[in-house]
Each structure stands twice: as C-alpha cells, then as structure tokens.
From TrEMBL:
Its main location: membrane. Coiled coil: none annotated. The keyword tRNA-binding does not apply. The chain crosses the membrane at residues 20-43. Keywords: Cell membrane, Cell projection, Chemotaxis, Cilium, Flagellar rotation, Flagellum, Membrane, Transmembrane, Transmembrane helix. This is Flagellar protein FliL. Belongs to the FliL family. One of its GO terms (biological process) is bacterial-type flagellum-dependent swarming motility. It is found in: Cell membrane. Residues 53-75 are annotated as: Disordered. Controls the rotational direction of flagella during chemotaxis.
C-alpha cells in the first residue's frame, strides 16, 4: 500500500511539471506573437511617415515657384525644358574582375535657358560627378530599370548641389550599354 501512494505522488508530479511546461510554451508563444505584431506596426508606420515627409517638400517647391532645386527628378513630359547634351561616357563598373563597363550618353534637362552658361562653365565638375557616381556602381545595381531610375535620381541630386542659377529637372540616357 505504501508503494501505491509513492507511485501516485510521482505520477502527480509528472503531470504537474508537464502542464507547467505547456503553460510556459503557450505564454512564450503569445509573447513572441505580440512582439512580432509591434515590430510590424512600427515598420509600417515608419514607412508611412517617410512617404509623408517626402511628399511635403515637393508641395513646398510647387508653392514657391520652384525657387530652390528639387531633390527628385521631374516627370512633366508636357513641359520639357531645354536639353544640355554631354559627351559620351565609357567607364569601368565596380566589379571583382574589372571586366564590367558602361557606355552611355547623357542629356540634362534644365529648368531654364539661363542655366546653359553655368553648365558650360561647370561641365568638367558635372562630368566628374557622373564618372564618380557610375564607377561606384556594380553591374547588378544599374542593369535593371529600377536601378537606372535610382541612378538618375542620384545624379540629379548630386549635380543640383553644384548649381546656383537653376536646376536640372531630369537626366536622360540617350545611349546606355552595360557589359
């Protein structure tokens, strides 16, 4: 009879410890789901905040009659500004083997004709900016359409930093070969 009581006590302890483990696992699972939900909410709210911040400066530029140069390219194809052609570029891309290159011809869309004289004076600086930007890119970064759009945005921003009489609205690749 004493042996039966010992067996019941051990069986009861096993059941209690098994239930305790199950409860701990459930609590940890619920906690993990809660943390994942908070992280997802933070990520989605921060991306909305960034888009609102990006939209606000564009509205200000329109309201101020474009007194300052924009950071983003314009896509108003109905009102294309004067074009400033640059000589072709043939450059090595960033790669492990050094065998990748880009050959392209670029035209800069100006916001006003008055910018042409400044571009003539600063053509060496502008070419240097384009060369440094392109040679820092890999084949994978510029071989896609999305990559070319990002490259255009980057070029517009960097070129506009050195201009004072106006700004570049857009960059057009009239020839673009990557190998």
């Amino acid at each position: 009879m004493a042996e039966e009581e010992v067996e019941n006590e051990e069986g009861g302890k096993k059941k209690k410890s098994g239930m305790l483990v199950i409860i701990i696992v459930i609590v940890l699972f619920v906690l993990l789901l809660s943390i994942m939900g908070v992280i997802a909410w933070l990520l989605s709210s921060s991306s909305q905040d960034e888009s609102e911040v990006k939209e606000a400066p564009q509205e200000e530029v329109k309201g101020k009659a474009k007194a300052q140069s924009p950071n983003q390219r314009g896509s108003d194809f109905a009102n294309i500004g004067p074009m400033y052609p640059l000589d072709p570029f043939t450059l090595n891309l960033l790669s492990d083997t050094g065998s990748r290159y880009v050959k392209c011809t670029i035209e800069l869309e100006q916001n006003t004709d008055l910018l042409t004289t400044e571009l003539d004076k600063k053509v060496a600086i502008i070419r240097d900016i384009i060369i440094r930007t392109l040679t820092a890119k890999t084949f994978e970064e510029i071989s896609t359409a999305k990559g070319k759009e990002r490259l255009k945005d980057e070029l517009v921003g960097k070129i506009n930093e050195v201009l004072t009489d106006g700004f570049i609205k857009n960059v057009y690749f009239t020839d673009f070969v990557v190998s």
